[in-house]
Amino acid sequence: MRQNEPSAHPWMANSLADIKQAMLKEIGARSVEELFEQIPSSHRLKRPLRLPRQLSSEAELKRHLVDLLAKNENCEENLNFLGAGCWQHHVPAVVDEIVGRAEFLTPVWGSAQSDHGRNQAWFEYASQLGELLAMEVVQLSVYSWGCAIGHGIRMAARLTGRHEVLLPRLIDPERLSVIRNYCEPQEMARHIDVVQIGHDRKTGGLDLKELKAKISARTAAVYFESPGYLGGIEAEGAEIARIARAAGAETIVGADPISLGLLKPPAEYGADIAVGPTQPLGVHMNCGGGVGGYIASRDEERYVREYNGFLVSITETSKTGEFGFSLASAHQTSYGMREAGKDWTGNSVYLWAIANAVYMSLLGPKGFEEVGALILQQAHYAARALARIKGVRIQFPKAFFKEFVVNFDGTGKTVARINKALRRHRIFGGKDISREFPEFGQSALYCVTETHSREDIDRLAAALKEIVGK
Amino acid sequence: MSGGQMSEKDKLATYHAPVWSEPVVMELGHPGRRGQIFAAADAKIRKAVGEARSLLPAAMRRRQAPGLPELSEPEVQRHYLHLSQETLGMMGISLFGTCTMKYNPRVSEMVAARPDLAALHPHQPEDTLQGILEIIHSFDLILRELSGMDQFIFQAGGGADAAYTNCCVTRAYHQARGELARRDEIVTSIQAHPCNAATAAAAGFKVVTLQLEENGYPSLDALKAAVSNRTAALLIGNPDDMGIYNPEIREWTRIVHEAGGLCFYDHANFNGVMGKLRARDLGFDACMYMLHKTFGAPKGGGGPAVGAYGCSRALAPFLPTPVVAKTADGYRLDHERPKSTGKIREYWGNVPQVMKAYAWARAMGAEGINEASDLSVLANNYMDKKLGEIRGLSRSNPDVGKWRMEMTRWGLGKLKEETGVGTADVANRMADYGIDPYWMSHEPWIVPEPFTPEAGEMYSKEDLDRWVAVIARIVEEAYADPDLVKTAPHAQAIHRIKSAPLDDPKQWAMTWRAYLAKHRHGQEAG
Cβ contacts (< 8 Å) between A124 and chain B: which residues? Predict the structure, then answer.
């Protein structure tokens, strides 16, 4: 055995002296260094890279990664009630198997023929989401819900030639920050004004009076969510859409697709464009790295021509009766038209579109009804259990789906303190929103899903009772 | 003879894709079948809150169940396994230029699936996230060393999103100086990736596009003429997709800086220069790496991806939040950055992909990263030599006699003229030999009938020989029997698709609902 020669790296087949020599000989070069002749010497880094020690042994690398990650605490060893845009839902085992398939996991693009199966899976993502939304056009997913809203608003601005969007004040600050970037600062020629509408103090829904007062011929779109950031179901969706339509504005609705087995599809109460998160449909939380966003509309050409990304259409092949799938109206993207394209597109979260497709196929209509009912009942049970604790109040106790605001003002304790105490019970309490929305005092946004059991909720209630009673 | 021990016959081994004729999932199943069941709520819960529907406002209850398929669990599994098998998906040889095809280490996939990463919530208390924050910070330090930049963030969901991040940071920077209203132009080149021009426009800037000279890059005079006190930034890649390195790039950054603009290095083509040069040393204020390309994280057929965005200390205050910071007590998320441009995507990025890129960088080490660049440039020039021997092919910028970087653009213009067979036909035909179709070119096509192979460091010399042998064989076919290539592919799951319906509003159908309505006259719709 030749002890002194470095080992070939497992991921580089040609990292052997004899192969490199043979290739150099074939092209007539004396050394690999010679091949970098285009780069002026003054541009070159003159020293070796200073990086941590190489771990080319898989055993060593795995140990290193596992040891690092073991410094985390996770939502399986703790009882988790955090949601707020990234939710702990059940991920069926088959979903994980399919998205782990090398043919889906590793490549970038092929052709409509060579990569037929993936294109079909993408079409099935759009088709099934289209059924949940009752809409005919669904684009391949974008980076996140916030990004989907951003693109939706820009679509509406182009469709109407107007530059203002009305949206709820009770919106996730993360999403709002993304939206503001998509709407551009005031200095820019196509800046879109973001005007926020307050809420009805009783229901938490959009304040219709304020909406009517603020909507005008400048308004490109009205955006609202159901369920919204604080979990509330907007009962006046149809009225909001009517007000928007009367003003010549588009209605954009944000909806969590896992709620749509029970909740009315946005199109049925007047949405022109629907957007929302895709992470609930079979994607792990991944520390926030599981998020994705959908955009959908009716199949009208004026909408289709405004999409920024990839629309996968079914089509025929040269063999009678056979079908295939490819990109429709593709020239309008930035790949086709550079700066004249619709916004921009690129790599997004297309593997998650396959996860979503598998998830929707596994659930079917009955599965969505069941999971929606279970979430809804458990969340309401939890809210009522917590409301029985002295000093604890639910902010909008009536119409919510999986999230609700728990107010602790009556306990005399801050959310920060309560959440810290919950840690001793191995519980991650709800997201502290007391800085985001000071008008709700010391409040936390709690999330309950199908992954919880009644015992979990009772455990939370008992722990909180103990903590606030001290 | 350079084919090693592999015979010509082996190189062109017969291939046929699996043909499952898998129906659209919407047509599968049987009413009542179930793939997942969720238990009814506990009896105590039902007693306490009543029926689920009673908890919803009447106006917002769904009336008709969604028209989803009803399948058993193994039916769903088999359907999607069949679809995966009907996807060549880099199981052939994929030299997909500009995308830097790499092996995606399975050890990282296994680690990423553990609850210590998959079941983390981004709003967990920071002391419960110390492991992942340490990984992100450690990887930030690795990228700082590779680039010379002072801070990286990973929020962008891909390379284009990082270009967009750059435009947002550029806006915030000029806004803070009170110059944004005037500095409304971004300069780029026709050879830069379309996302640079597109994200600049989407961020509200006017786009100034420089054309190329004979030597493959725009002239300094053209740059000087384009730059002024209206210039917000330069967005440029180097080397370009032709494998040409712009040796004047330092002069470029100087000129733009003198005019008060910022310089962004789109490092999409980093693979050939890793460890050879650093963006900051060339005068750039910011740069971007694609972790799903250069750094070994999987591409997923188009994400989840990461555009790692790094910048100088002067630009760091304008970065999107949060930024991972190291303190005496460990790692934390810095949200309090008053000059920040805000967020370009929720949370802190595709965190598992960052872990995978960190794992890749650790497994490669400084020596492996340097070797990967060497091998990718060697492999490209090796392929250039062999492709140059095939009739009908021509190399872009034939007057540039120097060795190319890690990829070269080739053209089939002559083949098209002489046989009618174009680059899309050849790409389709390649799949019949079990080779993944190549990348042609971004728009606009500067080289007629382009294709852009990028060998990278993963593929063996035997793989490269086979790839070239397949091109040579298809060229022979084109001259002998052009229809064979023009009607390709012939050995795939399906035949050549009809593209006319894809741009026809009366025919396109992006969902099954639309398909039923348009092509089956709504007979099954509902």
Answer: 24-26
